[in-house]
Amino acid sequence: MLDYMATAPTIEAEEGGGCFDGVLAYSCDAAFAAQVMIRHAAESCYEPPLFRFAVFINGATPLRVFKVGE
């Protein structure tokens, strides 16, 4: 299983010098990108968002955010 806590260095690298307006993510990366953005918003609610927009294509629900019913 993917460890979402391992995203912290990636987020910090992008926050330090990122010049990105948005993110385009497909399939598993769409769920991963959504998870990173949601985690950042939840933990840093007074900081600006990582991206101004996001486009997710054919992605699943982020695993650690929403409970999936049976």
Written description of the protein model:
The chain is of the alpha+beta class and 70 residues long. Helices cover 37% and strands 14% of the residues. Helix 2 links the parallel strand 1 (22-26) and strand 2 (53-57). It has a domain at 20-60.
Question: What key attributes describe this structure?
Answer:
single chain, alpha+beta, two-stranded parallel sheet, 2 helices, 2 strands, 37% helix, AB_hydrolase_fold
In short:
With 70 residues, the protein is of the alpha+beta class.
SSE order in H/E notation?
Answer: HEHE
Instruction: Report the count of strand segments.
Output: 2
Largest sheet, strands/sense/barrel: 2 strands, parallel
Overall spatial form: flat
Unreliable residue runs? none
Radius of gyration of CA atoms, rounded to a whole number: 12 Å
- Given helix and strand content, the structural type is alpha+beta
C-alpha end-to-end distance: 20 Å
Overall mean confidence score, pLDDT: 75
Strand content: 5-15%
Helix content: 25-40%
Main β-sheet, spatial strand arrangement: 1-2
Secondary structure tally, helices: 2
